[in-house]
Every structure is written in C-alpha cells, then in structure tokens.
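Deliverable D5.2: sample structural annotation.
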Amino acid sequence: MTRLNCSQCHTTLDCNVNDINACWCNQLPAILPLEESATSCLCPQCTLNEINAYLAHIYTQPIKAQIEFAKKFRGNDHLIEGLDYTMQSGYMVFSKWYFLKRGTCCKNGCKNCPYG
C-alpha cells in the first residue's frame, strides 16, 4: 500500500499499486480513457468527478451511441453513489448512467431516464 496525495485536490489516499485488483479504484468501472500524460492517482471523489465529466460528453451524442457505449458495462450490478445514483431526501435517485447501463426503459417516467 502506498500513501500519496490526489493530483487534483491533494487529499491523502492509499494506492495499492502492488496489487491493483485490491485497490479501491478497481471497484469503479473503466469508463475513462487512459491518458498518457497521467502520472499520479486521483482520490475517489476526484475520480468520480472525472468519470461524470466524461459521461457528460457521452450524453451529447445520439442516444444509440450512448446505449452502445454503456452496453459493455451492463453486467456490473454494483451500484456506486455519485455515479449510478444520488441520495435525495432519503431516496435513491438513479442517474442517466444507471439507466443507460440497464439498457431499457421501464415506462415509469423515472427522473433521469434517457429513453423517454
């Protein structure tokens, strides 16, 4: 385990560079493209911010392209707060990303549903 600082917000974090499968970041989906210029780790919050910023760009594409991008992440049922849902007034509110990963509309008029 290596202790370092987030390259964006400078928060202290633990990186398990010797066993990447045991690192906290391995629980996040591999959405972000790898940047050759990246030289250091980000903390969980900055990583989620980067993923959501990248997804915001994906959401500007036609819905078919969004669905195609999300398709490879469908098998992952592990929900991540700040990515798949947010808590609002004690309720779990699913994100657009969650619905794209699911791949279908349930026709219940859900907030953030990209299909309707």
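Annotation notes: The mean pLDDT is 88. The first helix runs from residue 44 to 58.
The annotation will be released with the project's public dataset once the embargo ends.
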